[in-house]
Amino acid sequence: MRLALNNVTYEIKGQRILDQLSCEITTGITYIIGKNGSGKSTLLKMCATALQPTAGTIEYTKLVENQQTVFQRKSLTTEEIRRTIGYMPQEFTGYAELSIERYLQYMATHKGIPRRHVKNIVHKWLEETNLYPIRRKALFTLSGGQLKKVGLIQALINQPQICILDEPFEALDQMERYYFDRFLRRYAFHSIILISTNIVEEMQEGDVLYLDRGWVRLFTGLEEESYQQVKEWIE
Ligand SMILES: Nc1ncnc2c1ncn2[C@@H]1O[C@H](COP(=O)(O)OP(=O)(O)OP(=O)(O)O)[C@@H](O)[C@H]1O
Hints:
The chain is of the alpha/beta class and 235 residues long. The chain contains 7 helices and 10 strands. The radius of gyration is 18 Å and the shape is globular.
């Protein structure tokens, strides 16, 4: 799977938020970083097909084998992208009146997990993220960290090939961050994972897309030198 941004520009109310952004992103973790208001959430919404660029294109392609057994790149349609994506927006709320368990079972079914497996899969996630004891609480009664975990689970539950997570670790404690981070790291071998963050300490090895008025710098492998550089930009 490959994601290509080609001169992506986004304007709203006369303000240019992203200016001719171009880069290619493949499987693995890519951190989207930048100061407050630099356009991280806007970019992620566009990658999740929730917003359209004002100009330029966002293209997902995957390798498919044709009848002559030759591999070719095929562009995914919007429908195919939506079926392939797990997205957690920054302001995730889910269906506020549903309980955690009902909501996750609903999402798992909606995302195509066979009904006979749904209960077990949801049960496992609830146990592993310490949400099991409060599984019957309605989403609107949850704390910020509890809701964030539900948001992450719904995005990851069907192991999507594209995960788009907007500030996923905000409000999580150290152990919970560690749990999701370990999961994403394993998962990054076969999926594109986009994570926006303002916290450089959260970043592990990965690529970095730095948004600064349309400038883009992409690092492959986050080594000590690049890590320090990223810290300087953010501060
Ligand atoms: N609906 C809107 N109307 C007007 N301006 C908007 C709208 N949505 C976003 N913006 C502006 O676009 C810019 C980028 O917003 P965005 O939320 O993408 O930034 P961000 O990098 O995710 O910020 P943060 O780190 O604070 O979450 C901001 O200046 C914001 O005020």
